[in-house]
Structure prediction request, 257 residues.
Amino acid sequence: MGAVMPKIAYLASSSPKALQAKRTLEALYPSVALSEADVLIVLGGDGFMLETMHEYLDANVLLYGIHCGSIGFLMNEFDPTTFLERLEKAKPAPLHPLEMTVHQNIEGVRKALAFNEVSLLRETRQAAKVQISIDGVVRLQSLVCDGVLVATPAGSTAYNLSAHGPIIPLGAPLLALTPISAFRPRRWRGALLPETAHVTFTILEPEKRPVSAVADFTEVRDVTSISVCQSKDHQITLLFDHEHNLDERILREQFLE
Prediction:
């Protein structure tokens, strides 16, 4: 960040812990209006940070998260005494979201962005049946499953990890394609794709086996086809404490017992 004190603004979740932390920091380090800020200090948990990333995607401001929630993978620790020093030494992590384009029989086409993952989920007791194409080539004729997802490196430790997908180091030009409770083919465990890949999911038997598509917070139900690719037109930059940056967190996650 350099030796000059950056212009900072604060944004806290509604939790009492986050609001108190905001008051503490504001008393020590005065803020400016968001329109003038170089860095937005986000106080809360990962869910609040993800909401903020979407809300301020086009604001041209750096985001530095402080953990005041239940999960803090995207956040830094709260320590008012070392706050300014850590902020000045923080390491930037630029992130590009996935863009989801969804087709429906009745309502047409909808688009949404996802920093973590785009996931397809069955809507009823019937398993979903999905055809998967990569860059226009059918790679899996029929996947019978509870769902399937495409995750970014930053999102690879979230839903993707719970579905037994691989953890991807930040900066690796890869995406994770991971099935959710695959029934057939039983041995298919997913794939690693180049970040330039265009993934198309075609829903087979959509009336009998309805499927919803979710991009972070945006859900579209009763879809017929979904295309997913990385959006180079959008970028958000997070800041992490130098000794606990996102690369280190992702690496450490792979050795947890």
